[in-house]
Amino acid sequence: MTDAEIDYEVDAEDLTLAAPREIRDDAKPSLVVDDLHITYRVFGGKKLGTATQRKDSFVRKLLNQGRSHVGSVSEVKAVKGISFVARHGESIGIVGINGSGKSTLLRAVAGLIPPTKGSVYVAGEPSLLGVNAVLMGDLSGERNIMIGGLALGMTPQEVEASFDDIVDFSGIGNFVYLPMKAYSSGMAARLRFAISASAVPDILMIDEALATGDATFRNKSTERINKIREQAGTVFLVSHSLATVEAMCSRVLWVHQGELVADGPAKEVCAQYKAFVAKSRAKS
Amino acid sequence: MTVPTQRKAPAPAASATTGAVPAPVTPSLTSDQLRHLAETHGLKQMGVRPPLREYVRNLWARRQFTAVLARSKAYARNQTNYLGQLWSLLNPALNALTYVLIFGFILNTTKGVGNHIAFIVLGTFTFRFFDQSVAAGAKSISSNMNLVRSVHFPRAVLPTSSVMSELFTALPATIVMLAFAFGSGFLPDMDSIPITWQWLLLVPAMALLWLFNIGCAFFVARWVAITPDLNNVIPFVMRLLMYGSGVIWTISTHVTNEFWLKILDYQPVAVFLYLVRSCVMDDPTIPQSPARWVWGAIWAVSFIVVGFLLFWRGEERYGRD
């Protein structure tokens, strides 16, 4: 993962969220994930083993030294065999500690990371709405809005039509004409959110998007997400804030070390997860 | 068809109090059942290579995205300077001056050519377009990883737009190149470079070279995406090609071996250099040659077709590293 995950708590009273809808078991499936495995190839990281080296002959030491600097490729198993079925109209929260594979799972489901093993079946075009969706730092906000919009599958006319709306919503004003590398991290995140929220997808995936910006912007983005949520078929939400997850989702998946350890009604899984967090906090 | 949703039997009581991590959920449906479920509801499989026809259609649908991405990148390249876009002309002009100085006045590597400044300026600029396109194509996946990881689109957009971006950089450079070639005709001891209708043939020549470059970019984009080490080898291949294509010297007067002469004359880069020179220069040693035009077309089409197929076959692997 190249992007830093943002750890963030939303105050429950800040949230004015639409209650999750009730889903019947026989609703049409919109997403089927079958035994999904994601293995990353990571270059440039290898344990050099200086601490555990035994007393070897000089030649062997030299050989080992040489070998440990060549071919430093390691594999990271981020997702290890997850299966589930999501249905139309469901909002599903994904919880888990940092590095448990939540974002990877979401990206694989959105078709951004090809599975190493297993398959993902989707109805329509999924779209990932994330503060992590980085655009191009060298280009102005204006160009980035055009690029982002076209990448999401809009036509240039559609992007131009929603340009003012995007700028207004992000609240960055005239900064939109400066290169994005001049933005504060909050401004960049707001612009990215505004771009990705301008299209309504069949399956909406939100990766920590509620963690963007100040209190005012958070209220605005919550409103926008609710609006998209009403139009989108299925919603996925990755968040570290259990308050958000509980308020928005009817069903919760708990991912731990790349495996799905719980899948059920939001209240039950959140309670389990809370107990787990409390216990690990007590330990440390 | 009604299938029970896969939810774990409610046994949270124990772990909710102990805080232990529960055992992984065992799926209630087998792979076959899941596939069947997906198929009966018409779901589309993600993260697999789409059929060729669909892939081409998707790529065509993103043509505006490709062009905007290319234009923005070519523009951003010069934006970090005080003089901004003026550098798109200054850069090639300085480049040309260097070559004029070294090869026009100090060295003589182009025996038999009436105007060796034009010969070398045309050669270096044309080769530069090829060289930069391949370098940009090789990095096209890794330098756009952020885009790859956040939006879903046919990845062939990336090498295509990288080369298109080089084309946008090469257009002002071509104007500078022509100005230098024309100007060199007024120097003493240099044949004049008349502006004739043949200059118009430069457009198809550059178009063929552009297609050929996109084809090469497809090849290296896939190779480098899967084995990043190859990116270190590309500069050496480029240097080999530079010396083997007669960029700054004339092949016919320096190579005597019949076999090598044939290879060096008809390999793609040398063919494109010949086409560009034959369009601009009015030199008896570089006449218009229909045979070379055919060769140019063959190289361009075969590289872009084979390169595209090769790139498409790796589609499901880009973005996992």
Automatic annotation (TrEMBL), chain A:
Pfam families with a match to the protein in the record: ABC_tran
GO molecular function, one term: ATP binding
Matching InterPro entries: AAA+_ATPase (IPR003593), ABC_transporter-like_ATP-bd (IPR003439), ABC_transporter-like_CS (IPR017871), ABC_transpr_TagH-like (IPR015860), Bact_Polysacc_Export_ATP-bd (IPR050683), P-loop_NTPase (IPR027417)
Keyword line: ATP-binding, Nucleotide-binding, Transport
The keyword Cytoplasm is annotated on this UniProt entry: no
Domain of life: Bacteria
Residue ranges of domain ABC transporter in the record: 60-282
Similarity comment: family membership: Belongs to the ABC transporter superfamily.
Name of the protein described by the UniProt record: Teichoic acid ABC transporter ATP-binding protein
Upper lineage: Bacteria, Bacillati, Actinomycetota, Actinomycetes, Micrococcales
Automatic annotation (TrEMBL), chain B:
Keywords: Cell inner membrane, Cell membrane, Membrane, Transmembrane, Transmembrane helix, Transport
Pfam families: ABC2_membrane
InterPro entries: ABC2_TM, ABC2_TM_bact-type
Low complexity bias: start-end ranges: 9-25
Subcellular locations according to the entry: Cell inner membrane; Cell membrane
Membrane topology: Multi-pass membrane protein
Residues annotated as domain ABC transmembrane type-2: 83-314
Origin: domain of life: Bacteria
Membrane-spanning residues: 86-107, 113-130, 167-187, 199-221, 233-252, 293-312
Region (Disordered): 1-25
Family: Belongs to the ABC-2 integral membrane protein family.
PANTHER family reported in the protein's UniProt record: INNER MEMBRANE TRANSPORT PERMEASE, TRANSPORT PERMEASE PROTEIN
Name of the protein this chain belongs to: Transport permease protein
Species for this entry: Luteimicrobium album
